[in-house]
Design a protein that fits this description.
The complex is a heterotetramer, with two copies of chain A (about 220 residues) and two copies of chain B (about 200 residues).
Chain A lengths: L29 H14 L6 H9 L3 H5 L3 H15 L5 H6 L16 H10 L18 E4 L18 E11 L2 H4 L7 E9 H5 L7 E8 L3 E3 L2
Antiparallel strand pairs in A: 1-2, 1-5, 2-3, 3-4
Helix pairs in contact in A: 1-4, 2-4
Chain B lengths: L1 H9 L5 H14 L2 H13 L1 H9 L1 H7 L10 E5 L4 E6 L8 H4 L4 H4 L1 H6 L4 H7 L9 E6 L5 E5 L11 H7 L2 H5 L13 H6 L7
Parallel strand pairs in B: 1-4, 2-3
Classes of the chains: A alpha+beta (about 220), B mainly alpha (about 200).
Chain lengths: ~220, ~200, ~220, ~200
């Protein structure tokens, strides 16, 4: 969706103002650490995947998204996911306490002893496929110019633009459908654009931008 | 946050000890020191660098790093003609196993919106001013690939050990918003004089 | 600029939810009437033009723009314009009262008796020119794909797209330069796009979108 | 707002009586009744409609309307195959002399963002469902042109006067988010029976 998350090329956010690397705490407030940990443990219950959770965050109203810090966005997204999954009620969020019996969960709660093994294992997003990739390294392609209302990972700035396939990465779960629960694996490619093809006269003269693009985002360049 | 946490714990969805374990992991164990060791190895072992560029996930696993948000790694190497910088314009994708959790600026709308359209302007806000002839390559992490930049090895470190080198590598240099400064040669009294100490102190 | 004002095709703002026409008041709160009237009278002092004032509004941080009602946006834009023109100090805005002597104004304050004649007269934006229009009705054109950081009136959704010139309107002050004080008049055209050229598969199959485009926004279609 | 107003008045930049005069103008004098009279004239006078389509600013001035935010008018006419709808995606451009100040929804991000990409979906939220065969033409007021839509004249108004017709024209029909409903023929007792009142009341 062309939501508040699609920030590439948007303006008006001011300078970056990084904190000095050696001074920046990993969490700026204790609650941020809890927000991260809750998001991971709730995710481990198995009711949503990474694309469902991204879509929950990007579906926040733009005023909320831009008016919130990043962990606030995560927290509001998590609340939405929990309600949509039937694990928590809106009335519980409103009252701030558990009011109903727990629902059955898809997977058991993550035990403390499982945390480090599970983080170290991760969850690969590649999937087997029997179809060969449609494009190869070095090939000129054009991105499609669709504007779906659902989740997608083709940013608006990189739509309808010609670029070059730089690398074929393998077959991955497809975010556009995975956000609806269907992994429908697709080949994934790094596609590199000349900055001038993306930004016109505003472009940095000696720069490129690369994205990782799923096969349905691409057509052969004309 | 406290209310949400107590709801989830009261309903039995979340084990409080698991929360603490996650926080402890990213507070103390998984952070940019991991990536720095990858970089130092790449600087000192050409065969490792080659493996890293060919299959970063496997080469990083050789050093014991991997897992969540680093399942599919790509490594890009800065040279004297090309500088790489990484962003996630759509959310906050970042290679946790080698860099830990992202800094606040990496997740900020200011960085995410601008580095793709004005990379040199953004780098300048980090104090990083590149030669105009150097090509800037921006990597927008739009899928499940995660990127690690190998910064250029600073001049003056020719005889440093891998461990010393790892201590030199900053997090920002592995995102690409920083270049590592040359290391001053060990000062020797006589050379100081020979260099001409006219304006000294 | 690709600022918060550039809303065409953005998503996440929910349904339109119009108030019934016969029930909607002209102003929803008394202060909105004051905001409108202050904006018009302050504008009559002659320190900025319409494009300068639009740029002041669109330069508000996105969180502020999306978090504000329309007359709040006008008010915050007006405050910025007054400060930039040296007519009001930031300290006066902060304290809520006049602290310094008035500055000399480019034009005298609008008198009550002038209000209706001045509103009825308006201020035409057409300007004489000696150059003929570069394009004619029926001609296929392509919009440029620039992303200027300053004011522009070519929306992001309509950049780098082919369309047809439908009408040649005359020579008008050019917003991109007028926002910096230079009217640099340019020919203005209605350009019509097939919805499918703008939105791809998301497009309404039987619809067009027309914009009014200044000549520097257009090149002949290839 | 009160504070800003008092600053501007205290510094002598603004005459409070001028503020009241502006508000009074748009509260009481300049509003969609003006546009409705233009539409009613266009419906009843083909030569006027022709002038309106050729030079809307001049034709509207014939009825005494013009000025701020209506200096350069364009009129578009709905037909049985084409429906027009107007927006300003970039701010809130609107033809004040004929329609007054815009309604809140016209300035809302919801309307401005969606009507260009999903016009039928937006129209449906106004209760306006068009035949799928009807082409929808969206006019985005990106320059200083201001648009007025001539809605289709409702069936059943064939013998109405221009004044009666003007009373029928809604503001939304002149923006294009509404179509005017057919007017019921005056009811006659005998015909009511003749139509068969089986399910009446």
């Amino acid at each position: 969706m062309n939501g508040p998350q699609d920030l590439g090329g948007q303006m008006g956010f001011g300078p970056v103002a990084p904190e000095p690397e050696t001074d920046e705490p990993i969490f700026h407030e204790p609650w941020e650490a809890r927000a991260l940990a809750l998001t991971l443990t709730a995710g481990a219950l198995g009711h949503w995947n990474i694309d469902v959770s991204r879509h929950a965050r990007e579906s926040l109203p733009p005023a909320v998204y831009y008016g919130s810090s990043y962990y606030e966005i995560w927290t509001r997204g998590l609340e939405r996911l929990l309600v949509d999954a039937g694990l928590v009620g809106d009335d519980e969020l409103a009252s701030g306490s558990a009011l109903h019996p727990a629902a059955a969960t898809a997977r058991p709660p993550l035990a403390a002893a499982q945390v480090r093994p599970s983080l170290a294992a991760g969850s690969p997003y590649t999937r087997p496929t029997s179809t060969p990739p449609r494009f190869g390294a070095g090939q000129r392609v054009r991105t499609i110019n669709d504007h779906p209302t659902g989740h997608t990972r083709l940013p608006r700035y990189a739509r309808g633009v010609e670029g070059t396939v730089e690398r074929v990465h393998g077959c991955f779960v497809f975010p556009d459908t995975n956000a609806g629960g269907d992994p429908d694996p697709q080949w994934c490619y790094t596609v590199t654009f000349a900055a001038s093809d993306l930004w016109g006269r505003s472009a940095d003269p000696r720069s490129t931008v690369s994205i990782d693009a799923f096969e349905p985002y691409l057509v052969p360049a004309s | 946050m406290r209310a949400l946490e107590s709801i989830l714990i009261d309903k039995g969805y979340v084990d409080p000890a698991a929360l603490d374990e996650i926080i402890d992991t990213y507070q103390h164990d998984v952070g940019p020191r991991n990536g720095a060791r990858v970089v130092a190895r790449a600087w000192t072992d050409p065969a490792y660098l080659e493996r890293l560029l060919a299959d970063a996930t496997a080469a990083i696993a050789e050093l014991g790093y991997g897992g969540r948000q680093g399942e599919h790694m790509v490594v890009v190497e800065n040279t004297d003609t090309t500088h790489h910088v990484v962003v996630c314009t759509l959310c906050s994708c970042y290679p946790w196993p080698v860099l830990g959790l992202p800094p606040a600026w990496y997740k900020s709308p200011a960085y995410r919106s601008r580095v793709v359209i004005d990379p040199r302007g953004v780098l300048a806000e980090f104090g990083t001013v590149l030669d105009p002839e150097v090509e800037v390559r921006v990597w927008d992490s739009t899928a499940e690939l995660r990127y690690l930049v190998i910064p250029r090895r600073p001049a003056g470190t020719e005889d440093w050990t891998e461990e010393q080198l790892a201590d030199l590598v900053t997090r920002n240099s592995m995102i690409g918003t920083e270049v590592l400064a040359p290391v001053a040669a060990p000062t020797v009294g006589i050379r100081d004089h020979a260099d001409g100490g006219g304006g000294a102190s």
